[in-house]
């Protein structure tokens, strides 16, 4: 269809790193595609951002009955978004082992021959599709890898690095090197005054479907594709190793949502205005200085202590909002509350005197009086039973859906799985995961 670019969404992952955010219960995991983020699921943000750059046909690669049904309930066939959405066939799920294998098998199944943008569902992106196309065409590439520049310190042990030639073609890959190895391979980065960044793989790929399918018919690749074949670790090095042109082109920004810490960091960047398209899509802020967004229904909602609306409390200064706060629909915010760099979902209660910073609160959660929550995630329907004389304090922690924290709980760097009732515990080591009642009994 001429210059049409298709969208291929890799939505089969289980979201293990993002637990308990992806859990509805200890043994029921949601699709990564449905991670709630700034009022919408991640996959909705992806579809809308691509649609606004001209992509009108999408192909979703899912995995398993729950994954298929959950995503389809949100996206349907695209009617709500003004696009057309197709889904991978459930009977072919056995082939979707690894992002690379899943892409190759479904390109054949859908008989795609044009240009497609392949995207994961555990990230948000700020990118210009036209710039990616221009780089792709200039290099006559089979695949163009969207890249993000990172410093050696950011890369060390966490990100893979691409080695590129002056014409933008990729010549090699270095998977999650140590800082010393980065400096050895890229000696210019070790100079005292160096501020150079290196290109890392953003997990987004612009592909020539026909040429990629042809390459994948190589007998060696056919054998590899029967196993777990990932894009970054397997497919791209294989293509480069056989002399097929793989290009790298920079995008403006990538926000990882694959872990709680990355999720919260990306949330802060989005609410802080570092993603221009998402900022525009959120609509005009309620306040420009400091910037924050509050749904009209929440501004009108009266709290149960003073009987005054949130709008009144903001006006008189008894509630301090911002910067970089979003409050969804029908939230009740009590007097003395202070919120900054935080996302408050629909139907949330934040009671008197609570203070939240760099935090996400899921729909219908309750945050009790005088709670102190920093750099944390509180899931939908969770209840934080804080009291003025016995407050709850959370730092760098994640509270799963419908979990229940008793007054006086102090957690730092702790994850609580869904639906657990946690007594007033303190002193748990950083990195503790409370996954069951047995875990809780161990620490009481």
Describe this entry's structure for a reader.
- The protein is of the alpha/beta class.
- The chain contains 14 helices and 36 strands.
- Strand 11 and strand 12 form a beta hairpin.
- The strands form 8 sheets. Strands 16-17-19-22-25-28-31-34-36 form a 9-stranded mixed sheet.
- The N and C termini lie far apart (64 Å).
Quaternary state of the chains: single chain
* Main beta-sheet annotation: 9 strands, mixed
Give the class from helix and strand content and strand pairing: alpha/beta
The count of β-strands is: 36
Q: What average pLDDT do the residues reach?
A: 93
Task: Give the count of helical stretches.
Answer: 14
State the helicity in percent bands.
25-40%
Shape: globular
- For the record, give the distance between the C-alpha atoms at the N and C termini, rounded to a whole number: 64 Å
Strand content: 25-35%
Side-by-side strand order of the widest sheet: 16-17-19-22-25-28-31-34-36
CA radius of gyration is 23 Å
Task: State the low-pLDDT regions, or none.
Answer: none
What's the SSE blueprint?
Elements: E1 5-10, E2 23-25, E3 28-29, E4 36-37, E5 40-41, H1 42-51, E6 57-61, H2 65-75, E7 84-87, H3 99-110, E8 115-120, E9 123-126, H4 129-139, E10 143-150, H5 152-155, E11 161-164, E12 170-174, H6 179-185, E13 198-208, H7 209-216, H8 219-224, H9 231-241, E14 246-250, E15 253-256, H10 260-271, H11 276-281, E16 287-288, E17 291-294, H12 296-300, H13 310-316, E18 320-321, E19 325-327, E20 332-333, E21 338-340, E22 342-344, E23 349-350, E24 355-357, E25 360-361, E26 366-367, E27 372-374, E28 377-378, E29 383-384, E30 393-395, E31 398-399, E32 404-405, E33 410-412, E34 415-416, E35 421-422, E36 433-434, H14 437-443
Parallel strand pairs: 1-6, 1-8, 6-7, 10-14, 17-19, 18-21, 19-22, 20-23, 21-24, 22-25, 23-26, 24-27, 25-28, 26-29, 27-30, 28-31, 29-32, 30-33, 31-34, 32-35, 34-36
Antiparallel strand pairs: 2-3, 4-5, 8-13, 9-15, 10-13, 11-12, 16-17
């Amino acid at each position: 269809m001429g210059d049409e670019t298709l969208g291929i969404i890799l939505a089969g992952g289980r979201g293990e790193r993002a637990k308990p955010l992806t859990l509805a219960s200890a043994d029921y995991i949601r699709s990564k595609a449905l991670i709630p983020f700034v009022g919408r699921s991640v996959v909705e943000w992806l579809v809308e951002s691509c649609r606004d750059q001209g992509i009108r046909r999408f192909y979703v690669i899912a995995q398993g009955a729950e994954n298929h049904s959950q995503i389809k309930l949100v996206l349907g066939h695209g009617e709500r978004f003004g696009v057309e959405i197709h889904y991978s066939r459930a009977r072919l799920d056995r082939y979707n082992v690894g992002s690379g294998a899943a892409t190759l098998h479904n390109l054949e199944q859908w008989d795609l021959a044009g240009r497609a943008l392949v995207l994961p569902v555990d990230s948000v992106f700020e990118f210009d599709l036209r710039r990616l196309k221009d780089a792709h065409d200039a290099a006559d590439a089979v695949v163009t890898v969207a890249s993000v520049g990172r410093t050696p310190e950011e890369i060390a042990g966490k990100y893979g690095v691409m080695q590129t030639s002056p014409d933008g073609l990729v010549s090699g890959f270095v998977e999650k090197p140590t800082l010393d190895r980065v400096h050895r391979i890229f000696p210019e980065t070790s100079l005292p005054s160096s501020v150079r960044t290196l290109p890392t793989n953003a997990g987004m790929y612009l592909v020539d479907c026909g040429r990629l399918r042809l390459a994948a018919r190589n007998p060696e690749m056919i054998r590899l594709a029967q196993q777990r074949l990932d894009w970054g670790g397997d497919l791209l090095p294989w293509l480069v190793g056989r002399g097929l042109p793989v290009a790298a082109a920079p995008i403006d920004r990538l926000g990882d949502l694959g872990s709680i810490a990355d999720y919260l960091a990306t949330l802060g960047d989005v609410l802080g205005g570092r993603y221009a398209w998402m900022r525009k899509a959120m609509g005009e802020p309620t306040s420009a200085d400091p910037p924050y967004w509050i749904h009209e229904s929440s501004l009108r909602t009266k709290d149960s202590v003073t009987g005054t609306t949130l709008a009144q409390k903001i006006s008189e200064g008894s509630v301090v909002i911002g910067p970089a706060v979003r409050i969804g629909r029908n939230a009740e915010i009590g007097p003395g509350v202070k919120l900054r760099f935080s996302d408050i979902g629909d139907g949330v209660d934040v009671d008197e005197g609570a203070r939240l910073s760099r935090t996400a609160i899921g729909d219908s959660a309750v945050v009790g009086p005088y709670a102190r929550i920093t750099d944390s995630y509180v899931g939908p329907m969770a209840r934080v039973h804080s009291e003025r004389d016995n407050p709850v304090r959370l730092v760098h922690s994640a509270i799963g859906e419908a979990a229940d924290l008793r007054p006086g709980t102090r957690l730092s760097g702790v994850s609580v799985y869904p639906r657990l009732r946690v007594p007033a515990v303190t002193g748990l080591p950083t990195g503790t995961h409370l996954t069951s009642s047995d875990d809780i009994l161990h620490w009481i």
